[in-house]
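Recall the central idea of this unit: under ordinary conditions, the amino acid sequence of a chain determines the structure it adopts. In this exercise we apply that idea directly, starting from the sequence alone.
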Amino acid sequence: MSEVIAGVEIPDTALVREATELVREAASPLLFDHSRRVFLWGALRGREQGLDYDPELLYVAAMFHDLGLTEKFRRTDQRFEIDGADEARRFLHAHGITGESADRVWTGIVLHTTPEIPLHMSAEVALVTRGVELDVLGIGYDVVSDEQRAAVVAAHPRPDFKNGILAAFTEGIEDRPETTFGNIKADVLAHFVPGFVRGDFVERIKDSDWPE
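Accordingly, the structure predicted from this sequence is:
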């Protein structure tokens, strides 16, 4: 029987069950619950906006979106978003989902920390960002009802979430500070890593090899 939270049905498929277990095993409870909430918020925002989306693809994108912060899947040579996106695409390919469908999931994960642009793309891409923005930044908080919020948080609690997610971000990216150039995660390291120096776009232009 499918699980229903705040009126949102969790797809009852082998793909979804395997994705759930993979993330449950790799991620902390904080990241697991956050990822499930991202799916639920995204689904609720999609319903509110009348968007037609693939629930399985949205679920995988939401569940894998922070996988690059985990010890098992994080690398040190690229942005953490790419870590999760690459693993999601490998996972989907192993289940026979390739081409444009897998690319939508990859793109949704890669762009989930890039403001505005994902909202103009396919429904799955947009809704991953909608879910992340609601859970982390509170954007769209009043668009969902008090009852919906209560049901989602009852199923996936968020004790001290603000401090916890900031700690997870810091731990997941502090050994690859150069990957934060030009993106919002530089703010995290600036707050929590002593000695971090933010990359400066203007200075990089001025210091490039071009003579003028």
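Strands lie at 3-5, 8-10.
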